[in-house]
Write a structure and sequence with these properties.
Layout: H1 3-13, E1 23-26, E2 33-36, E3 42-51, H2 62-79, E4 83-94, H3 100-113, E5 118-126, E6 131-139, E7 157-160, H4 167-170, H5 172-175, H6 180-187, E8 192-198, H7 202-213, E9 216-220, H8 233-238, E10 244-249, E11 260-267, E12 273-277, E13 283-285
Parallel strand pairs: 4-5, 9-12
Antiparallel strand pairs: 1-2, 2-3, 3-6, 4-6, 7-10, 7-11, 8-10, 9-11, 12-13
Helix pairs in contact: 2-3, 2-6
């Protein structure tokens, strides 16, 4: 079973979840869970993992491994419009691994740099690859509301925070900066309807957002910003590991500085999904472009 099918089963099984002593506002299916505490605080909770030879090549500098492990979860908090508060981590270290102190020292450093100090975790060892899991808790600023994948409406436009494609070849996936400030601005902007981070590829992630919102997303191929060395819109939409934000709303060009676009639009449709329209007007189903673990 691939990742998308498994996630669909998890989403259905998780409908109607209740919590003891708190209220679940948003469950599985978004970049983070949203929980309201009895005191009225709204918390964002996300968890992500990083596996050697899956998310980075064996032999990668441990400093960069540690950075990416923290940054992936911080990017999820940015995609919800929040700011990080604290983090926890687990590590499954290969048998005989001699650099645990170096690795976790670096993880602690990067967690602090993004405002989410590591406050606990767990360590084990196995004969498998190095595997790290990082949970980050975030909060929203006063006046902000979490931006979900389900809020896009017909007539909205698509914007991104940076160029796409070539992340693995260039090493961007190890050095990207989570778009926290842009996410926080978006959370306070009523014109922003939906948002998510692009980690599995523009095609697959835009398709997920479209299905959550019940719209058809049309992307203009010639408007997709390409990173240096990326030869085509197909590469840019499918390679993944970009960690830019996909932001959907109305009239955003002057409200959130630095956005690129619009690169497309949302339209009403009985068959939600995403298509990319090339220069000749041919429509390409893009929902399968990207990573499916």
């Amino acid at each position: 079973m691939n990742e998308s099918k498994l996630l669909d089963l998890i989403y259905k099984r998780s409908e109607g979840l209740g919590l003891s002593g708190a209220r679940l506002l948003v469950g599985p299916g978004d970049d983070a869970a949203v929980i309201e505490t009895p005191g009225g605080d709204v918390l964002l909770l996300t968890v992500d993992q990083l596996i050697e030879s899956r998310h980075y090549e064996a032999g990668t500098d441990l400093e960069l491994v540690a950075r990416k492990a923290i940054a992936r979860s911080v990017s999820d908090i940015a995609a919800m419009g929040g700011f990080p508060s604290w983090s926890m981590a687990t590590g499954i270290l290969p048998t005989g691994f001699a650099h645990g102190d170096q690795l976790f020292e670096a993880m602690s450093k990067y967690a602090l740099s993004w405002g989410c100090p590591l406050i606990g975790g767990d360590i084990a060892s196995s004969d498998g690859p190095l595997s790290l899991t990082v949970t980050v808790c975030g909060r929203l600023e006063p006046g902000a509301s979490p931006k979900l994948r389900s809020g896009a409406q017909a007539g909205d436009e698509l914007w991104v925070t940076g160029a796409l494609g070539g992340s693995l070849a260039s090493g961007h996936h190890l050095r990207f900066e989570p778009k926290l400030e842009t996410g926080r601005r978006a959370a306070k902007c009523e014109s922003v309807r939906a948002m998510m981070d692009i980690s599995d590829g523009l095609g697959r992630d835009a398709g997920r957002l479209a299905r959550s919102s019940g719209v058809l997303i049309e992307i203009d191929a010639d408007m997709i910003p390409l990173n240096k060395g990326v030869a085509s819109w197909n590469e840019a939409a499918s390679e993944g590991e970009d960690y830019e934000l996909l932001i959907i709303g109305a009239d955003l060009s002057e409200q959130i500085p630095g956005l690129i676009g619009p690169i497309g639009r949302c339209v009403a449709s009985d068959t939600p999904g995403v298509v990319i329209i090339d220069e000749g007007g041919t429509r390409h189903d893009a929902s399968g472009l990207g990573w499916d673990h």
